Amino acid sequence: MANQTDFFKTMQPYAMTAGAALGIPYQVIVGQWALESAYGTSDLARRSNNYGGIKYTSNADFQSGSYSGYNSVARFVNDYIRVMRLPYYEPVRNAGGIRETIEAFGKTPYAEDSSYVSKLKSMVNNNDTSQGVAGNVAAAGSKIISVFMHPIVLVLVVIYLMVKKK
Question: Which residue range(s) make up the domain with 88?
């Protein structure tokens, strides 16, 4: 992608979809994808639509070295949701707020280096939603409300809450 603003403008709707399916703040998801893919400029992102550094599994459309490759961003998002539903990501899914979710990521396989949490915090905090970017924690409340007003997201949230109660 041409720049950071383009990255967030393109990826924010996908992050919102994943966030609604997982109960994870989309700001954290899009920040994580920006971190993992160098704002969509990494070879893995450009050639394989893998913005999350997902290791190769049979769920991928193809293999790109030791990583999964996808024919579309939507296929990547579907697999990202599958990965984030694995048991060791349960604390991330249950964390609730943006800061708590970032901290929970630090205790998962994604945190391959000791500065992962601080990098992710920086990524989320330094992105300006007023420019179409999905990261400014201070503006998150109004964005979350507008997301939940979308009928499809509202249906997904209701389904998620019904499943979670069981």
Answer: 4-165
Q: For residue 141, give the CATH number of its domain.
A: 1.10.530.10
Residue with structure tokens 């905090």?
125
Confirm if 102 and 88 have CB atoms less than 8 A apart. Answer: no
Q: What is the pLDDT along the chain (166 residues), one digit of tens a residue?
A: 668 889 999 999 999 999 999 999 999 999 999 999 999 999 999 999 999 999 999 999 999 999 999 999 999 999 999 999 999 899 999 998 999 999 999 888 778 888 889 999 988 886 744 333 333 443 444 444 445 555 666 667 777 777 766 6
Residues of 19-47 as b/e, b for ≥16 C-beta within 10 angstroms?
bbbbbbbbbbbbbbbbbbbebbeeebbee
**Structural domains of the chain, count:** 1
